[in-house]
User: What shape does this take?
Amino acid sequence: MKVTFYGQSCFLVETMGKKLLFDPFITDNPLAKNIDPKKIEADYILLTHAHGDHISDAVSIAKRTGALIISNYEITNWAKAQDLKAHPINHGGKWQFDFGFCKYVNAVHTSSFPDGSYGGNPGGFVIWNNEGCFYHAGDTALTMDMKLIPMTCPPLDFAMLPIGDNFTMGYKDAAFAADFIECNQIIGCHFDTFGYIEIDKKEAKAAFEAKNKNLMLMKVGSTWAK
Ligand code: NI
Ligand code: MN
Assistant: This one.
């Protein structure tokens, strides 16, 4: 599995010969000014919730690439209304795609579109196949429901967790989340993009080291392989 970070919560994961793009927010992200969203290829676009900092480039990338949008029922209806292909999924449900299994899991957050309309309930994704298993938490608080993931999914190889605080859990709670999901390799996201979520990166890493876990803070545009 190859992971490329495009800022905020946007990752491209290449696995089983497919490209899975999560939460594209590039054009309006000052930290991603060196990324050209027109050059990103995707077979699938997975949207955790409807907030602008997770969906703002989804329609243009889906239109150009023909990618299938995977998200909750309300967000896929919004996508279909714009003539995009979409697969609706909801909390606790999983589906087998050609890249492997995709399960939509709980997140504690909100989910409205930038115009204020209803975006369903927010979630995260657990993806697994013969190459491995990972969790993209979306925007969420620390929640006991995270303990369900190791009970119901294969062991996680890595997980993307929000660490920026204010709108989501901060890094200290995210270190507890890493315990709950029984995962030692965490990729931090949803930090530094705007003032409310600026963090001390040394302290964030130390919070995970104290639990013998690794917090990776990827540079925007960089790639890591599991
Ligand atoms: Ni959000
Ligand atoms: Mn967000």
Remarks:
- The first helix runs from residue 52 to 55.
- The chain has one domain: 2-218.
- The chain has a mean pLDDT of 98.
- The pocket of manganese (II) ion (ligand 2) is lined by residues 51, 53-54, 139, 167, 190 (CB under 6 Å).
